[in-house]
């Protein structure tokens, strides 16, 4: 199909937003407020929520304090506890979406199959499993924790029992009294295993590398606190600011002075001693790398669960999966009824990147394969005009709330679209010099950080050994850098007279 035929047979919109999690919803709300109301939000799942819609495993909860885990423009006075469980977060997102007046432009159960920049039409042609769209701008908010990463284990397809990823939990599976294996000991596993331990006959936990786990300072909010938050929002904003400041104070330990992580390691080791009685088991769950090199986890129940009589921590490498169990390198085979895979997500190789084709005919995945993920200010990409990537390269956090970053990026892209309107620009695209300068500076700042020097191999790092995931500084610094759309760092194309007439 030719470009002209595509344009005539597609739905034409100003902006197409991919993903209905925090990023997509925030973009929809802020575009609407800015008068950019001609947009469509495409979501592959059946509701808003993104990560919080699909991750419904037992014990699912946020490890960022509740007071900071909401939009700044839509505080929630009704959080029940210091760390919110998944159902509350999903209910919050749904309520904000309903009250925003934007849900009429959301299209659910629809996945993007490919998005191609049409240089002649100066639009993105986006094919989905539903319709095809022609959009002036493409805003991708599909997130880095959206596509489960499955382990490459010999024979896993032969297993005859129930098998599923933590992010695709099978609530129909019978777990009570079963023999269950959990592969992985990351953020999801530390929440899942204590819940499974309560009902299973046996839980085998397969660990490749232990994580640093500190106590979860959990508490419930009282009825009085919630009433005050509801009637005096300024009090909740003050509480939110205090939480934010406390989290930001940790950044130097991550970025400039990794030795400060000694304090975190001491707290984590005390957490181990309090939760585990067996000295040998304590040794096996104690990391040998610096705290913070991998994501620091929080839990009060992880170590007591591992110390339970019906849980076994297995540290021998998995050799293969059989139809009825798992075989490890020591030759042991443990028979199981259910296999839970908690092995994380595609983060540095985001699947969406392979479906987006830019100005020169290469996909975003092909472009990033050369040097790793690179984007100007983590948001725009050279070779991809009018393209905005939420939670893009080096915008994720190891210490605070991603919603803060999402709001900062949305403010930047909204200002970009406002600038395009006022200056009658058809396209904006960061120069290669601006993008390279930004990315090189970020990677230089990564060198002294604990993520680089801490002695571990984490999912923060790509195949080139670069940390293209995290932001190496305070969040308020990135917000300041995103506070103004710097047109001088972009190649632009003005609206032609023909385009202006049809716009």
Automatic annotation (TrEMBL):
The keyword Endoplasmic reticulum does not apply. The keyword Oxidoreductase applies. One of its GO terms (molecular function) is monooxygenase activity. It comes from the Bacteria. It is an enzyme of class 1 (oxidoreductase). Keywords: Monooxygenase, Oxidoreductase. Its EC number is 1.14.13.-. PANTHER family: FAD_NAD(P)-BINDING DOMAIN-CONTAINING PROTEIN-RELATED, L-ORNITHINE N(5)-MONOOXYGENASE-RELATED. This is Flavin-containing monooxygenase. The lineage of its organism: Bacteria, Bacillati, Actinomycetota, Actinomycetes, Propionibacteriales.
């Amino acid at each position: 199909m030719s470009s002209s035929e595509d344009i005539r047979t597609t739905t034409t919109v100003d902006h197409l937003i991919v993903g209905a999690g925090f990023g997509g919803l925030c973009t929809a709300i802020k575009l609407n407020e800015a008068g950019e109301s001609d947009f469509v939000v495409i979501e592959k799942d059946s509701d808003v929520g993104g990560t919080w819609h699909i991750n419904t495993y037992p014990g699912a909860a946020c490890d960022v304090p509740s007071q900071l885990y909401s939009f700044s423009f839509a505080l929630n006075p009704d959080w029940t506890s210091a760390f919110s469980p998944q159902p509350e977060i999903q209910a919050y997102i749904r309520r904000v979406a309903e009250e925003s007046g934007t849900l009429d432009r959301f299209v659910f159960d629809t996945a993007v199959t490919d998005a191609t920049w049409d240089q002649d039409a100066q639009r993105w042609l986006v094919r989905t499993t539903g319709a095809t769209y022609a959009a002036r701008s493409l805003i991708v908010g599909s997130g880095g924790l959206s596509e489960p990463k499955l382990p490459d284990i010999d024979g896993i397809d032969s297993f005859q029992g129930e098998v599923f990823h933590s992010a695709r939990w099978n609530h129909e599976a019978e777990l009570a009294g079963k023999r269950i294996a959990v592969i992985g000991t990351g953020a999801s596993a530390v929440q899942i295993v204590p819940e499974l331990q309560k009902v299973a006959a046996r839980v085998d936990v397969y660990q490749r590398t232990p994580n640093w786990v500190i106590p979860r300072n959990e508490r419930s909010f009282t009825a009085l606190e919630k009433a005050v938050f509801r009637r005096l929002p300024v009090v909740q904003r003050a509480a939110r600011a205090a939480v934010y400041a406390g989290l930001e104070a940790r950044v130097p330990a991550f970025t400039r002075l990794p030795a400060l992580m000694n304090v975190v390691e001491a707290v984590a080791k005390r957490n181990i001693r309090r939760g585990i009685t067996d000295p040998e088991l304590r040794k096996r769950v104690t990391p040998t790398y610096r705290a913070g090199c991998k994501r620091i986890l929080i839990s009060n129940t992880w170590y007591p669960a591992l110390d339970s009589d019906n849980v076994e921590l297995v540290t021998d490498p998995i050799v293969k999966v059989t139809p009825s169990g798992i075989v490890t390198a020591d030759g042991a085979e443990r028979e199981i009824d259910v296999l839970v895979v908690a092995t994380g997500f595609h983060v540095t190789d985001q699947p969406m990147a392979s479906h987006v084709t830019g100005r020169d005919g290469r996909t975003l995945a092909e472009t990033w394969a050369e040097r790793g993920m690179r984007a100007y200010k983590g948001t725009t990409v050279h070779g991809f005009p009018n393209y905005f990537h939420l939670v893009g390269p080096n915008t994720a956090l190891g210490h605070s709330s991603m919603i803060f970053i999402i709001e900062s990026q949305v403010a930047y892209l909204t200002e970009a679209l406002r600038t395009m309107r006022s200056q009658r620009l058809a396209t904006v695209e960061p120069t290669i010099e601006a993008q390279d300068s930004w990315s090189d500076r970020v990677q230089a700042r990564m060198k002294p950080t604990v993520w680089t020097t801490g002695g571990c191999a984490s999912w923060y790092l790509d195949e080139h050994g670069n940390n293209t995931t995290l932001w190496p500084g305070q969040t308020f610094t990135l917000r300041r850098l995103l506070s103004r759309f710097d047109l001088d760092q972009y190649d632009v194309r003005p609206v032609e007279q023909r385009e202006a007439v049809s716009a």
